[in-house]
Amino acid sequence: VHSPLGVAQQGEEVASLDFEDPAFPPGDWTLLDNVNGKTGRESRHAWSRQTCERDAATGGEASAWCSGGGLDGAKNACGENIGLGTEPWLQHPGFDISAYPAGIQIDLMAMLDTPVGKRVLYVCAAPEGSTNFDCATLALPNEQLRARWLTLQTPIYLANTAGLSTVQVAFVFNDKDGAGDQGRMLDKVDTLI
Fold it and tell me: Is pLDDT at 12 greater than 60 in this prediction?
């Protein structure tokens, strides 16, 4: 699911998240716990703003952690293994991309502390109002990259967004088997058209 847009459409930023603002979730973004069906602060595990993990090379004081918020997640120390099955969503209700028929790309930095090849971090998109999200996934290719901040070689092109006027975007940590991973940290998220 990784393919760049053509040169003419590449690079204009629709939105950017750096998680430096203490308010969380940022702006129009919402939290959903897909395991217990709760939203916002009632979630069992939710994305949260954390200051314990960040990429020193790019600066900044904070990043987003997939499971450090909500009723149970807030009990975990930053970066602690989660130990429970969880599926928190950080979701935006809709970006207007009507002037950009080629669709959107997502670029980001991530720190993955999971076994090699385990696919649990998803970048998803759907038409406005739909519950049918199409997702791309990220996984570590080798052990040497575990627990290090990584950048994408190519932004993730969400092909299902081509031709839409308004697009929902979501970041999903899907680890329902509760393998006890630390989870995922995100930073420097750019939605590009």
Answer: yes
